Amino acid sequence: MPALLEVAALSAFYGETEVLHGIDFAVAAGGVTALLGANGAGKTTTLRAICGMVRARGEIVFDGEAIAGRATEAIARRGIGHVPDGRGTFLELSVEENLRLGAISRGDRGVGDDIERMFGYFPKLRERLRQQAGTLSGGEQQMLAIARALLLRPKLLLLDEPSFGLAPLIVTEMFAILARINREERMSMLIVEQNANLALALADHAYLLETGRIMMSGAAAEMRENAAIRHSYLGY
Amino acid sequence: MQALLHQIFSGIATGGIYASVALALVMIYQATHHVNFAQGEMATFSTYIALTLIEAGLPYWIAFVITVAISFVIGVVIERVLMRPMTEAPVLSSVGVFIGLLLIFNSVTGWIFTYTVKAFPSPFPETSRFLGGWASPHEAGATAVTLIVLALVYVFFRFTKLGLAMRAAAFNPVSSRLVGIHVGWMLALGWGLAAAIGAIAGMMVAPIVFLDPGMMSGILLYAFAGALLGGIDNALGAVIGGFAVGVIENLAGAYLVGAELKLTLALIIILAVLILKPAGLFGRAIVSRV
């Protein structure tokens, strides 16, 4: 498969501190790539660097175009939907307004249909449409964040720890939905997770990040069998 | 009874002016979490532009529209040139810029247009048979203009895509960028709208209080009291607060404290709100679950 996103020698900084030390990775078109690693390994920073939210150096080629150094809103409009760390809910606005905001950069008339399609994946959102988004539960806000990012009609979806703080049952349900979205919409995904089991079940390719460097990479199935990963990240 | 009704109605008329300026303050507060102290002086400057255009022979309503447009542009330019470099600055620096802006507008207005008090024309007739004497035609007309402006602003923010994008940019700039909103431009538009609303308030109040470079300083105080009373983070609350302050001010001025102490009342309201209910009457606490 051709690469939709290619990242080479990417470094990122918080102030003067370098937290990513020149990493290389790729996301295949239509595929799901997982970035695994412990807390503080640089997973969230990697996603932020792709979207121009932190100071970064290196090459980022998305869909045949160099996007490093571009403004965040330009990168979003270019076709990268980002489900951020902490879900990024517009707490003061209604669920419906949150959804409409996802599609705000689009000029076409298909938004209503697309929102309807999102209700197919996340029926709860339809019931909550008029409610203030800040009153949703964590799981509902996570679903809202995914729907909002999809309404951008992105070519690539970045997911930052979608399982964070959610009950196991909801997490399982959500990963099943993500798999469906990948299959039915051929949506390419780059997913960051601490829960390696879940991520490796969804992904077809994975990278292991440790303190800002890529320590290992390979097909998700192989990574699951790897003794070191099993021991450190899968817990068996 | 006739006198009381008259006081209430003229309170609503000036309250509408306070409500407009309060709305302008809230719009910028929601986006930046700062109060634009220069809002009043900017409005005064705009009113002088209107007077210049009218004296040059333009019909009132054409001068009105041009003034609103020029004020909008001034607001946008101030945000782009002066406020944008301040986004990461500490609070005190921003306050310094706002006060500097106030002094600059005040002095430039006096320098260009002189400090002489001037009469400003009203677009409404001198007398009317329909109002029965308990409100002047200008008060009624100004109230109508204010209500139309407030309704337009409401429709814009509530029902248009651009209005939604502006609200989103004010509430959550990070998430707004991730959905492709040009947050910087939304802020600039907010400044432009606030300046335009202020200009209309200035043109509506000038026939009542007469035009001089310090015309809006007292009005800004009342508007600020109104915004705090209603809740500085709530546009509708600020508008209601503005009207309430107008009525309170007029009634208290007529029956309680007399005209000399009216402005003190604004300060008492500000103090009372900050001590008793800092969020204001309608300042809703944001509900959030994790």
Summarize the entry for a quick read.
The complex is a heterodimer of chains A (236) and B (290). With 236 residues, chain A is α/β, with parallel strands linked by helices. Chain A contains ten helices and ten strands.
Tell me about this structure:
The complex is a heterodimer of chains A (236) and B (290). Chain A is an alpha/beta fold and 236 residues long. Chain A has a domain at 3-85 and 156-234: Rossmann fold. Chain A contains ten helices and ten strands. In chain A, strands 6-7-8-3-9-10 form a six-stranded mixed beta sheet, sandwiched between helices. A four-stranded antiparallel beta sheet of chain A has the order 2-1-4-5, with helices on one face. The model of chain B has no long low-confidence stretch (mean pLDDT 90). Chain B has 290 residues and is mainly α.
Defining key terms:
heterodimer, A: 236 residues, alpha/beta, Rossmann fold, 6-stranded mixed β-sheet, 4-stranded antiparallel β-sheet, 10 helices, 38% helix, 28% strand, globular, B: 290 residues, mainly alpha, 11 helices
* Radius of gyration of chain B (Å): 19 Å
Low-confidence stretches of chain A: none
Structural class of chain B: mainly alpha
The top-level CATH class of one domain in chain A is Alpha Beta
Query: Biggest interface: chains and residue counts?
Result: A-B, 33 and 22 residues
Which oligomeric form is depicted?
heterodimer
Provide a count of the helices of chain B: 11
Approximate strand percentage of chain A: 25-35%
Task: Provide the CATH architecture of one domain in chain A.
Answer: 3-Layer(aba) Sandwich
Task: Specify the overall morphology of chain B.
Answer: globular
CATH topology of one domain in chain A: Rossmann fold
Number of strands of chain A: 10
Distance N to C terminus of chain B: 55 Å
